[in-house]
Amino acid sequence: MISITDLTVDFGPxxxxxxxxxxxxxxAIMVLAGPNGSGKSTLLWAMAGLLLPTSGAVRLRGPxxxxxxxxxAHQSFLYEELTPLENLVLAARLCxxxxxxxxxxxxxRKIGLESESRRRVSxxxxxxxxxxxxxxxxxxxxxxxxxxxPFSNLDRTAVHVIRQMLDPFVSPDRLAVIATHDPNPxxxxxxxxxxxxxxxxxxRMVRGAS
Length: 210
Description:
The chain is 26% helix and 29% strand. The relative contact order is 0.22. Helix 2 (84-94) packs across helix 3 (100-111) and helix 2 packs parallel to helix 4 (126-138). The mean pLDDT is 91. The protein is of the alpha/beta class. Strands 5-6-7-3-8-9 form a six-stranded mixed beta sheet, with helices on both faces. It has helices at residues 40-47, 84-94, 100-111, 126-138, 156-166, and strands at 2-11, 14-24, 29-33, 55-60, 69-72, 144-148, 175-180, 193-199, 202-208. It folds into two domains: 1-67 and 145-209, Rossmann fold, CATH 3.40.50; 80-142.
């Protein structure tokens, strides 16, 4: 579903990705694992088309052509002066979804943020903001989902919510890619995963699906 060819990303004199070539098929959760500064988040952003590489190419293809994506960054990038519900309604409208309010309310219920849905984002905990940002990423039901450290700052209940919502991405026409420090994230146990170990901007090991 994603083909990466000779991908290189430089930030000034620093080489963040060094001639990475990978194929990421659908049907399993792809885990990009590595320590801080390894290049895993840079690779995630480049795959999502949010970072222009220095050289190389990323090709994202689905059964119906180029699919839409959902993206969760390590920061929430929510509008802090708005409520979680208002953030979702705005995203739904920008995506051209039908019934933006109804769809957003349904998603708020699904992630368990009903009691916080009308509070300003700036008053929410980091974990609550993370949940709201995840809800925004999956709201359009994208076939491809990119997540940067999705389980950080979350309690067990919130982790379980996200874990359940990843189940549909284990299918022949969908793909989820997760960047994390942990090559074996406990919340993903029971799901078929493929781990891609990143070190110093290079792919060191690929294993899976498990």
